[in-house]
Amino acid sequence: MGLVIVGFGGMGHEHFRKLEGVKELTVLGTFDVKADRQTFAQSLGTKAYPSFEAVLDDPKVAVVLLATPNDSHKDLAVAALQAGKHVICEKPVALNTAEFDEIVRVSKEADRLFMVHQNRRWDEDYLTVKRILAEGTLGKFYHLESRVLGSRGIPGDWRKIARFGGGMMLDWGVHLLDRIVFLIPGRITQVFCKLNHPTGQEVDEGFHLFLTFEGGQTALIEVETCHYQPLPLWLVLGTKGTAMIKDWSLAGGIVAQAGSEPDAKPIVAGAGLTKTMAPRTEAAEVHLPLPVVKSDVRDFYRNFVQAALGREAPLVKNDEVRRIMALMEAAFESHRQGQVVAFE
Amino acid sequence: MGLVIVGFGGMGHEHFRKLEGVKELTVLGTFDVKADRQTFAQSLGTKAYPSFEAVLDDPKVAVVLLATPNDSHKDLAVAALQAGKHVICEKPVALNTAEFDEIVRVSKEADRLFMVHQNRRWDEDYLTVKRILAEGTLGKFYHLESRVLGSRGIPGDWRKIARFGGGMMLDWGVHLLDRIVFLIPGRITQVFCKLNHPTGQEVDEGFHLFLTFEGGQTALIEVETCHYQPLPLWLVLGTKGTAMIKDWSLAGGIVAQAGSEPDAKPIVAGAGLTKTMAPRTEAAEVHLPLPVVKSDVRDFYRNFVQAALGREAPLVKNDEVRRIMALMEAAFESHRQGQVVAFE
User: Fold this and answer.
1) Tens of pLDDT along B146-163?
2) Long-range contacts of A32-38 (CB under 8 A, 24+ apart)
3) Within 13 Å, how many C-alpha atoms sit on residue B150's CB side?
């Protein structure tokens, strides 16, 4: 299938490079409103379409891939679907569920596939956590923490601007939440969220988000852009062990119980003693490596083609995407009200 | 002043050892309802009073130190105060603010000093955080996290029993909250708390507690007893740097901005790219040691004597202790309701 990339910034170029390894899709060209990006595309030997309309008018184009700022997704997607194109769209797909519902309605009317690029479902850190939970190494799972922390602030482009869909909830929250709900099944009963704006940006520069699931499990999701000493990407807590993934290189491991041990002896801790927080003895714990899962994010594109041809179900389903959009709306609402929002 | 230690378990013995270095107070003896502890006290060469009444009847006893389970503090304190003794009491002083108010009322009526052993105000990790905030190294402070995490569960004594005042909020929460409010001034506007019971105990085995202050600063307090890979004791986030204290040995440091740097280059992170979360360049950050503060927890006892003699104000004030009790009640209420509680 012929594909054109619309929006040729960082993500557009990343798609361009990734698609080189996907034989089912042929990049016919790109389009961007900025002249320097048009020139850049031509320098890579690909066609720079003169306008978005020219992309839609080209009958060789079966797929439009949208990698433009978040506020433009809806209008561009609707136009492309109505022009008979299948659409791959960057995340977050829309600024609210109402916009998203309109896209999905048009997709059904036009009988064209609309699929959101939730590429981080192919993150190996996340897939490794999924395997750890499936293997049950940690005993009964009760809490997890998922963090992405940086110190460089929000880049000085549209990501800082509210009306373009900027802010860390829409940028990173959308990924972290999309992964969490595949790790913890069931309804989300409570959403508590606190956004922060340490350097005074109009969009959220970071947040703490606390979720409670109907099974009683909880999750803490944290994103920061003003954090100079990052905590681990993942912590997964079970009754018999804890898994930690420190960073994108998948450093980390599992520490688990190895049999019981006698009542702890108090240790000196600061100005007092503690028996409760005494460390385990070495004999009573075992250190295990992470059961690392390998993945290929290009499976996203391959599945897209098969789904467009009606041969496979899409791996990223629109009802899943909608649920995460609604969850982000609940998080914004929780912050605004200073209250817990009952979600599902 | 002559002092008797009532309750000669772990904390009672710890007081006994600490008081050896305090010339202003003389340990006249101990009392415990358990025979083996009476024998143990005698083996240390101190007198084992035959009953609590015998302690109160002894005119040489000016101070009663209560290191008994939490549910017994109120009745013992009231009796001691009414017998004309000054009282040092272990924390948490009472199971609720109503009990506490009664003790304070009796203390005023009897004109005797009642002071709670908030020993962790002398913790060097906490005092170091206090100095970091005072020195302003981190720029504008906006968030901190205080954690105490262990994996051995709750010790199998009264700490597991609700009616004895067990559970991690009353055991550790009382300390961590008592320190937090000296680090972040002003009213606490919102309290969100989620207790956990991973191994099914009747008391809380751990919790996440999220506080919002009137100045907009936030704090996350976490205690766990089923956590096998502890996070740092402290994280302090400012606009220009982050301080981390890893453990009780005061390992850790400060990472701070060293000038601005050009727009980040995207890095590969899992299945995607990120510009926002690219690390700082080495030239753009500076690593500083922690400004470690040293302390002597025996200053607590020395101040107690001076305060009982009317020469100094007590370092641990009853209205401070009451505020923390009310805060813990708000935390329990937040968990029970599944809601944010408006506190002050």
Assistant:
1) 999 999 999 877 889 999
2) A32/A6, A32/A7, A32/A8, A37/A8, A37/A9, A37/A12, A38/A8
3) 21
- Taking an 8 Å cut-off on Cβ atoms, the answer to whether A10 and B275 are in contact is yes
Lowest mean pLDDT among B11-15, B199-203, B268-272: B268-272
| pLDDT at A263 exceeding the cut of 80 | no
Report the residue of A118, A140, A145, A152 to disrupt the B interface, i.e. the one with the largest count of B CBs within 10 Å: A152
pLDDT band at B52 (very low <50, low <70, confident <90, very high): very high
Query: Rounded to an integer, what distance in angstroms lies between the CA atom of residue B190 and that of residue B213?
Result: 7
Chain A contacts of B218, Cβ < 8 Å?
Answer: 194, 196, 208
C-beta atoms of A264 and B155 within 8 A: yes
Tens of pLDDT along A111-150? 999 999 999 999 999 999 999 999 999 999 999 999 999 9
Contact A24/A302 with Cβ under 8 angstroms? yes
pLDDT at B158: 81
What is the per-residue pLDDT across B82-120, written as a single tens digit (0 to 9) for each? 999 999 999 988 889 999 999 999 999 999 999 999 999
Residues A192-215 have pLDDT tens digits of: 999 999 999 999 999 999 999 999
Strand order in the sheet with B61-66: B47-48, B26-31, B2-6, B61-66, B86-89, B114-116
Chain A residues with CB inside 8 Å of B149's CB?
277
Indicate which of A122, A151, A212 best probes the interface with B, i.e. most B CBs within 10 Å of its own CB. Answer: A151
Chain B from 180 to 239: CB within 8 A of any A CB: 189-190, 192, 194, 196, 198-199, 208, 210, 212, 218, 220, 224-229, 231-232, 235, 237-239
Q: Does A293 touch chain B (CB under 8 A)?
A: no
Residue A155: what pLDDT? 83
The DSSP string of B41-83 is HHHTT-EE-S-HHHHHH-TTEEEEEE-S-GGGHHHHHHHHHHT
Residues in B closer than 8 angstroms to A231, CB to CB, are 231-232, 235
pLDDT at B281: 87
CB distance A234 to A144 below 8 Å: yes
Nearest chain A residue to B125 by CA: give it.
A270
